[in-house]
Amino acid sequence: MAIALIVAAGRGERLGTSGPKAFVSVAGRPMIAWSIDAFRASGSVREIVVALPPGWEPSESEAAELDGCIRCEGGEDRSLSVRAALEAASAGEADEPVLVHDAARALVESHLIEELVLAVAPGSGCQAAIAACPVTDTIKVADEGGFVLSTPERSTLKSVQTPQAFSRNVLERALAQDDGVLSAATDDAALVAQLGIKVLLVDAPTENFKVTEPKDLELANLILSRRTAGGSI
Length: 233
Ligand code: C5P
Known about the structure:
Blueprint (H helix, E strand, L loop, with lengths): L1 E6 L17 E2 L2 E2 H11 L3 E8 L7 H6 L4 E4 L4 H11 L8 E6 L7 H10 L8 E7 L6 E2 L5 E3 L7 E10 H8 L3 H6 L3 H6 L6 E4 L10 H15 L5
Parallel strand pairs: 1-4, 1-6, 4-5, 7-11
Antiparallel strand pairs: 2-3, 6-10, 7-10, 8-9
The chain binds cytidine-5'-monophosphate.
C-alpha cells in the first residue's frame, strides 16, 4: 500500500482569489476535493495527508471534504510543506511508495496514480517515478540579456507534473537536505535526483494541468463538470 501527501498550503496569488487556491470552488466543490477523490478511488492508497496553510481553518463544508485525511500545517515553500506532510504521516515500511501531489492539479485520475505506485512498488527496482507529458512547443534556453542561447531537441523534453512517487526512505533523505536547498527546488524529483537516484518519467495527459491562472480555473470547471455529468471532453 502507498500513502499520498497532497500539498495545499499555497496562497495562489496568480489566481487572484482571496482564500487558499486549493479551496477555490471548481465544478461546485473545493478544488482539493477532486484530487482527494482520485486518491480515494485508487485501490492502493492507505492514507492521505493534506498540508494546509498555517493558521488557516477550513469551514465546516470544507472540513467535510477532508474527512478521513490527516491534516498538518504546511511550510513557507512547497518542499517544506511536503516535508511537514511526510512527518505527519503514520509510520510505514522504508520501501513503501509515497505519492506527492499538488492540490492545484485537480484533474488527476486514479489510473495515473496506480501506474506511479506500480512503478516504485517494492521489488520494482525503481525508487522514483514522476508524471510527465511531451512538450508541444519548441523550447528555447534564454541568456540573461533575453537572447536565445540554445534550442534543446524537442523530442527529449518533458513537461513535469504531479503525482510524483518515491520509495519512502528516498523521499525522507531528499527532504532531510537543508531548508535552503528545499526552498530552491520546484519539484520533489529534483531533490531526489540530487541524491544520485534515477527518476523514471511516466506518460501523463496534458489534461493533468496545474490550475495557476484564471483561464486554467475556467478549463478545470468545464472538464470536471463534464466528467461528473458523465460526458467526455
Ligand atoms: O504555487 P504553485 O502552484 O506552484 O504550488 C504548487 C502546489 O504546492 C499547490 O498545490 C500549493 O498549494 C502547494 N504549496 C504548498 N506550500 C507552499 C507553496 C505551495 O503546499 N508554501
